[in-house]
Design a protein that fits this description.
Blueprint: H1 6-17, E1 31-34, E2 37-41, E3 53-61, E4 68-76, E5 82-88, H2 94-108, E6 114-118, E7 122-138, E8 144-149
Antiparallel strand pairs: 1-2, 2-5, 3-7, 3-8, 4-5, 4-7, 6-7
């Protein structure tokens, strides 16, 4: 089985994110499109390069100056990693984006993951075991996204 480093995986996924992770893309084994969210599985990831925690905080700052896409990678131990891609419209507030991401993650994150908003513009993601959460792509102009382990 081939393993990708974090930077190689990010570059590979960025290449395919412009096509919306189409079913023809070599990186996707299974793709499901629901509303403005795309969920796809990815090849094996070198889990040694990922950071793990049982609680993550996603912080959003600023209004969006353009439409774009946010792509999150979830990696649970002994499970196939998945990417969740959220399309974001222009002229949304940080609270609007946090609500969109909260809804997308609640609907598409691996079973057992708890997702809730905190303070309007933050999203908390929790699980009983340690997992990795990475922002692979942010193509939205002027939107700052920060992931912190808690």
């Amino acid at each position: 089985m081939t393993y990708l480093t974090h930077s190689a995986l990010a570059a590979l996924l960025l290449t395919f994110s412009a096509s919306g992770f189409s079913q023809q893309a070599a990186v996707s084994e299974k793709v499901t499109v629901i509303e403005d969210v795309t969920v796809s599985t990815v090849p094996a990831v070198d889990t040694m390069v990922l950071e793990y925690s049982n609680k993550w905080r996603i912080k959003f700052d600023n209004r969006t100056d353009s439409a774009g896409e946010l792509v999150f990678l979830f990696a649970l131990k002994n499970k196939q990693p998945i990417c969740i891609s959220v399309s974001v419209a222009k002229d949304l507030s940080e609270n609007d984006i946090a609500k969109m991401v909260e809804n997308a993650l609640k609907k598409h994150a691996p079973r057992g993951i708890k997702v809730e908003r905190d303070d309007g513009e933050d999203v908390l993601v929790k699980y009983k075991e340690r997992f990795s959460l990475t922002l692979l792509t942010n193509t939205v102009n002027d939107l700052d996204v920060e992931l912190d382990k808690e």
